[in-house]
Write a sequence for this structure.
């Protein structure tokens, strides 16, 4: 079997997994139902586009071949781009080595400090700062490179040498250090390569030839010590370059590669942001984008890999000159050009290297990414053995147009879909992918490929750490979906903020699973309280809260079609004003939410949309209106009030489903389809209408009712009133407030667990005010709860006195501890501060308990006197 034979079947297997995972995450299915057919189509299109792009750029003089320093991966045996190198601080050593001065005495030497002694075989100079008086006399002399049988290199002066680093003397190894390479090219130093592409040293290293670079470091240091040239080895924190793909240490090597000249392309991409043709969200990333493009380096696009698009370059057998190659779109074209230039006997062979996948296309056999599509939100979850994206292998600079038929700009796909509106992706690939797509899109089509770039954050563990097998903190999306559900995972990710990394924890997922369950249970409540679909009379009453003409059209000829008549739109002031306070409040709040959410969507504030909808559903609809509606549905003797409540429940819940659907497609679609006679899926239903009426005064009134309810609930909890016990209350307010509060006394009694028959509404203080708990709900709205109704006063006093004794004992112990100098001096600062906080909190509790005892005793005394 060969790679070429096995690769297609491997692709088919992996692509099948990709598509199944996309569907698992809630992505709408592709019109190409067979994923293999889809990918083969894309590959066929993009393959031609990649070749055309390479040839076109070469013809414009923007692609060239040259020997330059690249980041070399010895294990992968390929060059990697600067953006694929990650730097980490790791412990290492700084080696101090003697370089004898040629022609000097035995004690005449320079001591260099290096973190990579194995590269000294590639030294072509020793450099000092011209202002460093310690070494001024040696400038222009020769130094002897250790362990090289007396090879001499010049001692030069350069202001880039840091006098404070090490000894102030720098070894120059142009073949193995980026800065040394630039210096060598500037002043014309020779470039000497001492390393093979597998990370072993070559013949230049003499006796160390064929030994791994890190083994040479150990062996060379031992030999230097033995020869008396080793001065010292001291601990030092290294800035180590590692490959994103394999994690191995990158080796700077000079290698012949293919490059794209980036500066003219970058200028156009910068101009696109300056003129607002392209907007990056969040805006702060525009500065990062501009900085990178303003300091861009030429792009090394050749890779020494099996997988990828072959570079469309052919060489002539027997010709090895720098320009002895042919760039062509196919072998036949290359052969024709070669024979025209070199004769009919010319024999050609193709460059074995492939193009960087960021230039060509995407695919990897180890890493995949899952797009949790929600229109217009897309959340990305990266999944691999360590849950980290192998970003160099996923997408390409030509993707926005190469998949649409380019270079055939007359294709229907290209005309319809290019350019698009928005790209959503992770902020970590702003340079890898986004900037390159912008540059290539402008270069080849004259247009930016998208108008907006939305950058989401990266997913990290609960402590904000990068997920890895080493740390054991990997969260597998598939396992997560199996445990918590797709909707909970999507919503947890949607709550993040653009550009900010998100810490994903079990607690966060559990919370959002609870939210999903809450939505499901709310849906069950709404459905249970709707009329049977066949009950035309009940639906007629319910739909009276919508425009009558729409209802009449829906039931013409008794062919009752609920899906047309059940929309219950409170889209005018008259329909809203007919509602009672709780209903008017929740509909008004809904209308405000629709406007807010729509605006947030328009501004791409997806996290705000999720939070705003979450707060309304749970905080307003589920916790308050559903509970309030039970007074209408189960206690009201007025059928019209119950019908209105059902209409509002349905209307509000429908709109909640619509606003949550982009985040939670599965549960919302299931609940939508469960509503009476829904033939069309939720995903294609119209977005809620904006600019609908709302009444701020009704919202304020219900907020007063809420404040009163909370005050009563808090008092019940404070005095440990049994949940099932109904207590009496006197509500005191001005006539206007009393009117609307009293009108909703059934709701107040239900929500606060008050005795409906023992509720009194008055403008003056009740006669038993001195024997009651006084509550201030809001300005101008108060309540008095008779203590005798709430607790056995004598028993409560005894309970509080026992509690007071325990608290005073605990407080005494804390004060004794804090008064000990030994504790203050020796205990950690946070322990001392914690003890101080506990003592202060305990003192406050003691005072509150004493006040409550005094209040209860005085109340009891008054009651006995009476």
């Amino acid at each position: 079997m060969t790679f070429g034979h096995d690769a297609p079947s491997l692709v088919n297997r992996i692509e099948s997994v990709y598509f199944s995972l996309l569907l698992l995450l809630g992505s709408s299915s592709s019109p190409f139902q067979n994923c293999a057919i889809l990918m083969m189509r894309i590959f066929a299109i993009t393959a031609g586009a990649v070749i055309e792009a390479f040839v076109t750029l070469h013809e414009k003089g923007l692609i060239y071949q040259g020997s330059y320093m690249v980041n070399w991966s010895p294990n992968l045996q390929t060059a990697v781009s600067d953006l694929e190198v990650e730097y980490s601080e790791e412990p290492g050593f700084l080696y101090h080595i003697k370089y004898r001065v040629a022609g000097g005495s035995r004690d005449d030497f320079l001591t260099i400090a290096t973190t990579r002694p194995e590269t000294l075989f590639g030294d072509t100079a020793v450099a000092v700062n011209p202002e460093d008086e310690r070494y001024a006399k040696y400038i222009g002399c020769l130094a002897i490179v250790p362990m090289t049988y007396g090879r001499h290199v010049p001692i030069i002066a350069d202001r880039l040498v840091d006098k404070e680093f090490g000894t102030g003397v720098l070894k120059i190894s142009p073949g193995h250090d980026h800065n040394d390479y630039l210096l060598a090219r500037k002043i014309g130093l020779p470039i000497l390569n001492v390393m093979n592409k597998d990370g072993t040293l070559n013949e230049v290293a003499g006796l160390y030839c064929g030994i791994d670079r890190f083994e040479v470091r150990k062996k060379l240091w031992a030999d230097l010590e033995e020869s008396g040239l080793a001065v010292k080895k001291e601990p030092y924190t290294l800035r180590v370059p590692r490959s994103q793909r394999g994690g191995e240490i990158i080796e700077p090597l000079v290698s012949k590669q293919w490059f794209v000249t980036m500066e003219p392309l970058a200028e156009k991409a910068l101009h696109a942001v300056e003129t607002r043709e392209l907007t990056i969200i969040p805006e702060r990333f525009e500065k990062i984008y501009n900085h990178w493009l303003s300091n861009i380096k030429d792009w090394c696009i050749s890779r020494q890999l099996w997988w990828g698009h072959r570079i469309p370059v052919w060489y002539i057998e027997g010709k090895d000159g720098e320009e002895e190659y042919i760039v062509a779109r196919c072998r036949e074209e290359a052969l024709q050009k070669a024979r025209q230039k070199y004769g009919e006997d010319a024999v050609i062979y193709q460059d074995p290297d492939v193009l960087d996948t960021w230039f060509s296309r995407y695919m990897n056999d180890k890493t995949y990414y899952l797009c949790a599509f929600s229109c217009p939100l897309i959340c990305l979850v990266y999944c691999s053995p360590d849950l980290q994206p192998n970003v160099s292998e996923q997408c390409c600079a030509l993707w926005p147009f190469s998949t649409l038929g380019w270079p055939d700009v007359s294709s229907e796909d290209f005309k319809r879909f290019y350019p698009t509106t928005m790209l959503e992706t992770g902020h970590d690939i702003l340079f890898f992918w986004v900037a390159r797509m912008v540059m290539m899109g402008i270069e080849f089509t004259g247009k930016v490929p998208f108008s907006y770039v939305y950058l989401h954050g990266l997913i990290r563990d609960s402590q904000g750490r990068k997920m890895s097998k080493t740390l054991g903190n990997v969260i597998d999306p598939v396992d997560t979906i199996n445990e918590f559900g797709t909707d909970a995972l999507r919503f947890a990710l949607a709550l993040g903020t653009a550009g900010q990394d998100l810490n994903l924890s079990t607690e966060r997922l559990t919370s959002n699973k609870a939210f999903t369950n809450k939505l499901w249970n709310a849906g069950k409540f709404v459905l249970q309280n709707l009329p049977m679909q066949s009950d035309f009379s009940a639906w007629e009453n319910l739909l009276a809260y919508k425009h009558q003409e729409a209802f009449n059209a829906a039931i013409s000829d008794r062919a009752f079609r609920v899906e047309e008549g059940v929309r219950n739109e409170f889209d005018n002031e008259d329909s809203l004003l007919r509602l009672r306070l709780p209903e008017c409040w929740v509909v008004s709040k809904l209308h405000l939410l629709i406007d807010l959410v729509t605006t947030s969507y328009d501004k791409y504030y997806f996290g705000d949309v999720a939070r705003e909808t979450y707060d309304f559903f749970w905080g307003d609809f589920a916790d308050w209106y559903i509970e309030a509606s039970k007074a209408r549905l189960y206690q009201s003797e007025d059928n019209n009030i119950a019908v209105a409540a059902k209409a509002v429940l349905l209307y509000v819940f429908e709109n909640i489903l619509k606003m949550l659907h982009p985040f939670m497609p599965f549960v919302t679609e299931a609940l939508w389809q469960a509503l009476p006679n829904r033939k069309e899926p939720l995903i294609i239903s119209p977005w809620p209408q904006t600019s609908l009426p709302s009444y701020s005064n009704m919202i304020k009134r219900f907020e007063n009712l809420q404040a009163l309810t909370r005050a009563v609930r808090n008092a019940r909890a404070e005095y440990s009133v049994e949940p099932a016990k109904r207590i009496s209350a006197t509500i005191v307010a001005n006539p206007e407030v009393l009117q609307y509060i009293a009108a909703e006394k059934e709701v107040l009694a239900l929500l606060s667990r008050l005795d409906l028959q023992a509720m009194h509404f008055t403008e003056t203080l009740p006669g038993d005010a001195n024997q009651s708990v006084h509550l201030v709900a809001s300005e101008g709205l108060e309540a008095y709860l008779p203590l005798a109704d709430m607790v056995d006063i004598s028993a409560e006093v005894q309970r509080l006195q026992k509690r007071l004794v325990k608290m005073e004992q605990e407080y005494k112990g804390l004060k004794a501890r804090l008064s000990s100098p030994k504790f203050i001096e020796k205990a950690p600062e946070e322990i001392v501060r914690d003890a101080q906080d506990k003592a202060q909190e305990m003192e406050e509790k003691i005072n509150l308990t004493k006040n409550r005892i005094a209040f209860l005793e005085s109340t009891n005394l008054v009651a006995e006197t009476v």
Remarks:
- The chain has 28 helices and 27 strands.
- Residues 31-36, 362-395, 547-568, 861-866 have pLDDT under 50 and may be disordered.
- Residues 88-253 form a domain with the Isoleucyl-tRNA Synthetase; domain 2 fold (CATH 3.90.740.10).
- The first strand starts at residue 63 and ends at 73.
